[in-house]
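Exercise: predict the structure of this protein bound to iron/sulfur cluster.
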Amino acid sequence: MATAQTPKSAGKGHIIIDVEKCKACELCIHFCPQENLALSESINARGFHPVRMLDEEKCNGCGNCALMCPDVCIRVFRKR
Ligand code: SF4
Ligand code: SF4
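Solution:
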């Protein structure tokens, strides 16, 4: 008998960006394997366009963005 399977979700991660600390160096953007980060149009208090996530469902929770950020602006959470 076939067993029902839960469809796999594409997104398994979630990130929180401290936009006021971001200096828009773009390192996280270049190292995101999902090409899921970009500079936003808004400007933070330091005068930079901070990074934003493009599509919450595309984040796989790999942690590359947090590892690459020299200013520790990103925290990554894995969805279960
Ligand atoms: S955790 Fe990985 S997939 Fe998600 S935004 Fe960061 S680098 Fe991209
Ligand atoms: S690596 Fe950090 S400082 Fe650089 S753009 Fe990404 S979040 Fe901003």
